[in-house]
Amino acid sequence: MSGSASSFFFGISTIAYILAMVLYIGYLAFRKKTIGVVATTVTIAGFLSQTIAILLRWKEFYDIGQMGWLRAVPLTNLYESLIFFVWCLILAYLVIEFKYKNRTFGAFITPVAALVLAFIDISGMSKNIQPLVPALQSNWLLAHVMMSFISYSMFAVSFSTGLMYLIVKTEKRNEPAYIFWTVMLSIFIIVLGALGLDYLTFKLSVKSQEELIKGYLFKATFRNSSSAISLLSWAVSAALTFVIWRFGGALRKIITGFNISAETLDEITYKSIAMGFPIFTLGGLIFGAIWADQAWGKYWTWDPKETWSLITWFFYAFYLHSRLMRGWRGKKVAMVAVLGFVAVIFTYLGVNLLLSGLHSYGSQ
Amino acid sequence: MEKEKNKSFIDRVWDLFASVKFAVVIFSVIALTSMVGTVIEQNVEPEKNLTVLAKLFGESAAPTLYSILDKLGFMNMYHSWWFVTLLLLFAMNLIVCSLDRLPRILKLVREPIRPLSEEHIEKMSIRRTVPFKGKPSALREEAASAIRKIGFRPSESETEKGLQFYAEKGSFTRLGVYITHLSILIILAGAIIGLYFGFNAYLNLPEGQTTSVAYKDRGAEVPLGFEVRCDNFEVDYYGDSDMPKAYKSWLTVFKNGKEVMNKVISVNDPLTYEGITFYQSSFGTVPDSMDRGVVVLTVVSKDGKSEQVNTRVGGTFTIPGTSETGKITNFSPALSFDQAGRPYTYDQNLLNPAIFVEFSNPGGKPFSGWILQRYPQTWNLPDGGRVEFRSFWGVQYTGLQVRKDPGVLIVYLGCIIMAIGLYITFFMSHRRLWVSLAEEKGTARILIGASANRNRASYEKDIEKLAGLLGEARKGGK
C-alpha cells in the first residue's frame, strides 16, 4: 500500500508537523509574530492533509474489507490508532490556540505529535491495511476506539499543560515538584533517544523484516549485550537528567515571558481532563466492557489492557477528587495529571509492547 | 482531644471510612497490586511466570520469589481473598463518603433560591447593568418574558426600590457525583451476583455431536438444562489468503428432545437460550479423525441436474443423469503446490481441504484432478458439469465459551447510570440568576447577577443575550 494516495497525504502531514514543531520552538525562542503565524498555517495545512489521508484510508479499507463503512474505520492496528491520536491532538491544540489566542502551547504539543509520527517509523510497525479479524468485526469498534483516542489526546493536552504549569510554578531546585518535572522530562527525552538508537542499529544490522523491533527494545543502549555500553547509557542518562535539573529554570523564564499565567495552564489542564475523563469512562471502559461481553462472554477479565485502563481511570478520578481536597490544588494536582498520562502511555503502548493478553491487535 | 475520646468505636470506623486519606490509600493499593497482576500472567502454567521473574530478578531468586507470590495469591490475584477485600473496602469507602455528605447536599438542593439584596447581586461572578428611565413596574412583563426566553422560570418579589426576579436551573446537577458513585456500587453488585449465581465454562463440541453439559476450568461439569448440537463449523477466509474472515458454528438447541432454537453464531454474535449464552471462541481438529470425515459434495451434470452426495475418502459418486462416476482417491487437509507443481500438505488442520477425484467415463477421455473446497474454479469438469466441494464434515470441533450471568443486566444498568451521572457532573451546571429592577432618585437600572458552578463561559453568553433583550425592552417601555 506504500504507493496509495493516503500515504502520500500522510507523508505531507508528517513533514508539516515536524516543520511546525521547529517553527513553534523558533517562535518561543525568537518571539517573532511572523514565525508564529507561519507555524499555525503549517499546522493547519498538515491537519487538513492528515484529514484527507484518514478519509482516503477509510475508503481504501472499505474497498478491501467489503463490510460497510462502519466497519472500515481505519483504527484497527497500532499504526492507524497512532495516526488518529495525532489527528485528535492537533485538533485539540488548534481549538486551544484559537480560544486562548496563545501559541506557546504549540511548542509543547507539536513535539508530541512529531515524536509519535517519528515513533511510527522508528518502531518499524506495519503500515499495511489489514482486513478485519473476526473479533474486531463489530459496530462497537468505531465508538470504542475512537472515543478512547479522543480521550487520550485530551489527556495528552493535560499532560503538556500540567508540565508547563509545574515549570512555571517551581523556582527552587530542591523543591519536590521541580525535581519531579525535570526527571519526567528527562525520562521522556531519554526513552525517545534510546528508541532512536534502537531504530538506527536495527536498520544498520539489516534484520529480516519479519523480526519485530519489539525484541530490540533498548537493545542498543540499556539492554546492550556489552555491559560497557549499558553502563555508559545509564551514565549519559544520569548526566542528561542532571543538566535538565541544573538548567531547568531557563525554561520557566521562556514560558513566563509569553504572558501565560499559571491559572490559565491549570484551567486548561482541568478542562481537558474534565472532557477526557467522561469520554474515556464511556468509550474506553463502558463500551469496551459491553463489547467484551458480546464477543468474549465476559465484560471484565482483568486482562492487562483492561487493568491498565482502570489504573489510568483511577489516576484521573484521583485528579478530579484531589482538586476538591484541601492543600492539593496547584502543584500536587499538576503532578497527578502528568503521572496520569504516563499511565495512559502504558495502557496504550506499554501493554501491547511488553505484556500479553487479549488486546493484542495493536502489537501487529 | 476530649471529643475524640468520647467517640464510640462505630463513629471512629465511620470517620476512617469517610476520610479522604483512607480513600487515597485504598486507591493506591488497588492500583499498585493491579500493576503487579498485569506483569505476572494470571492463571497460567508456573513456567511462564518463572521465566518472567527470572528475567526481572535473576535465575536464583526466581523460584523462592515465585513460591512467596504464589502463597500470597498473586498467580490468580484478582480473585484472591485480599483483592476482593480491597474492592469491598473501596465500595464501603464510597458508600460512607457519599452518605456522609449526601444529607447536606440534599438539603442544599431542596432549598429554594431566595431574592438577594443589591449589594449581594453586585458580588456575583457574572454581572450586567442596563440603565432605563421610568418605573420598574412598567417593565415587569417585558423583563419576565426576557428571562423566560433564556430558559428560566422566574419568581418575583417586591423590593424597597422596585422589584426583583430570581430563578435557578439545574439545582439537581449537584447530585451528579452521587449518581456516578451509586453507579459504581451497582456495577460491583452486578459483578457479585454474577459471581455467585452464574458460571463461566467452555465446551469443545465436534461437528455432529450433542451435549447437555459444559466444563469449568478444572474440568467440573456444569449441566445446561437442555441439549445443544453443533451441526457444522466453518472458517471463511479473505480471498485466497489464510487470513480468517469469520468463524461460524451452526448450533441447534433441544429441550426435552424437541428442537427449540437454531442459530449460526460467530464472534460478536452469540446464541442465548434460557439465560445461558454460547460464544464462538476457538476451534480445532479432533485428533485422529481425518479418516472419519464426510465429504459433502453437490454434483451437477452439464444439463443442470444436481444432487447432494455424502461420501468418504475412498468412496464413489455418479454424475446425475449419466453413467459417469468419480472416485475420491486422495485427501489433503491443507493442499498446496510446490514450485515444480507437485502437491503437498502444508498443515494438519483443515486450512485448505482438497480431494483428488478420478473419473471414469466409458465414452470420453478419462479425467482426474484435485478439487479444492475454497477454490470454486477447481470445481468445473471439462464436459461442463461441476463437482462442488461443500465441506469436509465431522472432523472439526467448535470451541464455545458458555456463560450464565444473571448480574450482567445490573452491570449494564450501572453503566447507563454512570453515563448519566458523568454527563450531569461534567456537562451540566447549576445556574442561578437574579434580576433587580430598581429606581432611586430618578435614575433607574436593571441589575443582573448570575453564577454557575460549571461551564461559566456558555452561561455568560446567555446572560449577554438577556442583557440585550432587556435593553430592547427598555426602549419598548418608553
Short synopsis of the structure:
The complex is a heterodimer of chains A (364) and B (478). In chain A, 73% of the residues lie in helices and 0% in strands.
Walk me through this protein's architecture.
The complex is a heterodimer of chains A (364) and B (478). Chain A is mainly α and 364 residues long. Chain A has a domain at 1-132. In chain A, 73% of the residues lie in helices and 0% in strands. Chain A has eleven helices and no strands. In chain A, helix 1 (5-30) runs antiparallel to helix 2 and helix 5 (140-169) crosses helix 11. Chain A is globular, with a radius of gyration of 21 Å. The model of chain A has no long low-confidence stretch (mean pLDDT 84). Chain B folds into four domains: 2-106, no CATH class; 112-170 and 429-477, TATA-Binding Protein, CATH 3.30.310; 195-288 and 397-418, Tick-borne Encephalitis virus Glycoprotein, domain 1; 290-393, no CATH class. Chain B is elongated. In chain B, helix 3 packs antiparallel against helix 6 (81-110). By secondary structure, chain B is an alpha+beta fold. In chain B, the strands form six sheets. A five-stranded antiparallel β-sheet of chain B has the order 1-22-21-3-2. The A-B interface holds A 130-131, 133-135, 137-138, 274-275, 277-278, 281-282, 286, 289-290, 293-300, 302, 304, 307-308, 310-311, 314-315, 317-318, 321, 325, 351, 355-356 and B 20, 23-24, 27, 30-31, 34-35, 37-39, 41-42, 78, 191, 200, 238, 243-247, 266-270, 277, 279-281, 401-403, 408, 411-412, 415, 418-419, 422-423, 425-427.
Identify the quaternary structure here: heterodimer
| Number of separate strands of chain A | 0
The figure for the number of domains of chain B is 4
In the predicted model, the low-confidence regions of chain A spanning at least 5 consecutive residues are none
Please state the CA-atom Rg of chain A, rounded to the nearest Å. 21 Å
Q: What are the segments of chain B in which pLDDT stays under 50 over at least 5 consecutive residues?
A: none
Give the biggest beta sheet of chain B. 5 strands, antiparallel
The succession of helices and strands of chain A, N to C, reads HHHHHHHHHHH
CATH secondary-structure class of the largest domain in chain B: Mainly Beta
Query: Total number of helical segments of chain B?
Result: 11
- End-to-end separation of chain B in angstroms reads 68 Å
